[in-house]
Amino acid sequence: MLKQRILTAAVGLGVLSIILFFLQPVIARLSFALLILVGSWEWAGFCFRTKTAIRLFYVALIAVCMTILYTKLPDRQLLEMIFKVALGWWGLAMAWLLFFPTPIPKLVSWVCGMLVLIPTWVALDYLYVESISYLVFALLIVWVADSSAYFVGRCFGHFKLAPKISPGKTWEGAFGAMTVVFILSLIGSQFLTVEMKGLVLLCLAVTILSIIGDLTVSMFKRDASLKDSGSFFPGHGGVLDRIDSITATAPLIALALLSFGV
Asked: Which of 25, 55, 79, 135 is the most exposed place for a label (fewest CB within 10 A)?
């Protein structure tokens, strides 16, 4: 299982490198959009696993919303509003996690999916256009946090972080992730033209949000009695299983770049 995870991660990293550094910008941006649309197909499956027509309708709805936004971007005020709405949603999601298990109505799930997926696409697209280096660093933080939490939790984990949502996650893993990201941010501040204190605080906030994003998607999967959102990535599950942390962190990093030019 671990070997398959590592192999899939290596292939995914190679594909991402090609998208970011070798493809034409229009193709790269289209790739982000397609990734989100695959994620929307999976999200619709949380409610209607076997109803293909309804799932396709949801994908089309997300695509229409993305198209409308694309015609209006980049508009600074609109970008700021989208990112702030997204962060507001993740604040509510953090509180929601405390009350799970609670039944999630299908309509509520669909609306939540839009609040998760559309700002993620806007943020990824904005980061790619404004600064690939910041996008890469943002993805690196999330992946380092995720990997650190996994390995530290596996080796030293004892106290469950959210046993009703994701029994495998532990407090030790979460603190391990924050420690490793803290060190990474100190190193990163030497190469990025940003204040060390601001970068460290941002990276720690990103780590916390990455955990919230992971747990929130897991909450919807658990409500739907699913282990994985899909099977797009062998050994890693679906697209949502891979970008769950990024959905929560990308809007924060994009807003920081938009507001402060971090």
From this structure: 25
Tokens at residue 162, please?
């959210």
- Residue 238, classed as helix, strand or coil, is coil
Condensed to tens digits (0 to 9), the pLDDT of residues 51-69 reads: 899 999 999 999 999 999 9
* Domain count across the chain: 1
Task: Give the residue from 260, 118, 124, 144 showing the smallest Cα distance to 199.
Answer: 260
- Determine the Cα–Cα distance for residues 82 and 258; give it in Å rounded to an integer: 12
pLDDT range class, residue 9, cuts 50, 70, 90:
low
Distance CA 135, CA 192 (A): 12
CA angle (51 as vertex; 49, 57 as ends), nearest 5: 105
CA atoms within 13 Å, Cβ hemisphere of 80: 6
Token pair of 82 as six digits: 């989208």
Closest CA to 206 of 123, 118, 102: 123
Contacts of 135 (CB under 8 A, 6+ apart): 20, 124, 127, 128
Q: Which residues span the domain enclosing 122?
A: 2-260
The DSSP code sequence of 40-54 is HHHHHHTT-TT-HHH
